[in-house]
Automatic annotation (TrEMBL):
It comes from the Eukaryota. GO terms for biological process: oligopeptide transport. This is Uncharacterized protein. Belongs to the major facilitator superfamily. Proton-dependent oligopeptide transporter (POT/PTR) (TC 2.A.17) family. It comes from Coptis chinensis. PANTHER family: OLIGOPEPTIDE TRANSPORTER-RELATED (PTHR11654). Gene3D superfamilies: MFS general substrate transporter like domains. Keywords: Membrane, Transmembrane, Transmembrane helix. The keyword Ligase does not apply. It is a multi-pass membrane protein. One of its GO terms (molecular function) is transmembrane transporter activity. The chain crosses the membrane at residues 43-62, 74-93, 100-119, 139-160, 190-209, 215-233, 329-349, 369-389, 409-429, 449-469, 490-510, 535-557. GO terms for cellular component: membrane. It is found in: Membrane.
Amino acid sequence: MEEKIGWSVTDAVDYKGFPADRSKTGGWVRAAQILVIEICERLSTMGIAVNLVTYLVGTMHLPSATSANIVTDFMGTSFLMCLLGGFLADSFLGRYKTITIFAVVQSVGTGILAISTRLPDLHPPPCKKIASETCVQASGFQMSIFYMSLYLIALGTGGLKSSVSGFGTDQFDDKDEKEKAQMAYFFNRFVFFISMGTLTAVTVLVYIQDEVGRSWAYGICSVSMFIAVLIFLSGTKRYRYKKGSGSPMVQIFQVIVASIKKRKLNMPSNISLLYEDCPLASRIYHTDQFSFLDKAAITAEEDFERNGSSSPNPWRLCSITKIEEVKMVIRLLPIWATTIIFWTTYAQMITFSIEQATTMQRSIGHFQIPAGSLSAFFVGAIMITIAVYDRLIMPFWKKWKGKHGFSSLQRISIGLIMSTIGMAAAALSERKRLSVAKTAGATTPTLPISVFFLIPQFFLIGSGEAFIYTGQLDFFITQSPKGMKTMSTGLFLTTLALGFFVSSFLVSIVKKVTGSDNGQGWLADNINEGRLDCFYWLLAVLSFINFGFFLLCAMWYRPNKPENALEMESVVNSSSFEEKC
């Protein structure tokens, strides 16, 4: 038996369903094959998103605000699909099949997009004159093909994104000290390769789009993803697989349903009389908060199955620990809600900020910087901030405070502050750009103002993302119940999705409220004739108000503790669904 434990991996199997052999499965090589999928996903999604607004305005001849909303809706849907991918992976398909299926879907969607940008019949003819009024907008058929390709990409991105990091950590045994250390390095390299994929997308791929052709760039994305799938499949016999125990959403619904069914029952005088079936070491302290859910633990005769089984009907009776886990999720929601606005400001960096860049001087000598490549400053800010935090701030904080850097909530607060300042900087730079446009003329193709005026807003929002992304990931994983790590990752990613959707909503509202019959207003069809700076100031004010709400929520938040007074296991390096007690 001891020999078997030595070579097999705990709770992992091989592709045949037998205990996974430590020497033949998992490890760095298999993790690298999984990383290839994520690199190509970032290359495709970001390579398309950061330069899509210029295609919609310049080729499809859509209004500025409409184009911005299409991009934010696309990105929002991509992250929202993470919930679907996570649910399918946990409940039905498993991570391996989920990654394979959705990676193929994304490859097909990108291929269709490449074809649609190549065929003349699938986009309107070029404008005959400079005046935008003479341009013919894309037809309904042309837009339907475009939307089909775009949302196939969104479906593929969301589906595979929810499982890649989890399947990567499955290749390491967290109960083995050596492999547990390797797992920590995997996450560092995972974040690094995401950033490298994004950086390649906003530089090389955007340059190919502008100088060679979009169909070539999108074709490269499609082919690279297809090759990545083949590389991923080649490791099938060497991967380690872990079985999930079903979706944690079921447990949440069970607690809610059971508490509703027993809402008229009186609570017992002693809390110890409530139902509990978890081992003592796994139990969580009962809390008085959200006490209406406690009624799900009141024992009644009809709670047990009629077939004589001692197991209760989970839709009628839930243990105190399961109820407390649901309470833990509910406590996350105020913090979750107050981080959405950051991603609304982030959305402006790949929409209006890119459109600003198209009107400004972008030349360095004889080289013309593609407008979409301005996002390189954004990605660079993220990488620089992470490096400074890792090498300077964390050692300093350790010496001064005796802690390993800022807490998750502190990092989130820093990100929210920087986004507020970033929007104020964006408003000031846009005011300067508009003053130049007023002097040069609104129809001037290239205004006599350097695109580098936009660097402060890219840098501030990028640095803010470095803090808030790591803070959110840390908070939602470590503060969620032990068996709901996958769901908490999906919950975190929904803040990105909703941030993009809120951006679309705000753009629509602002355009309707400030617009006029001739199409002008804050968000005019020609941004040189609008007041984009006012829109940025609006976002700065909303971000400041939101930061105030965040501080209140952070002070209100109180983490749960296990009943045996030990700290709950912190598994920042694992997003896998762990078996419930």
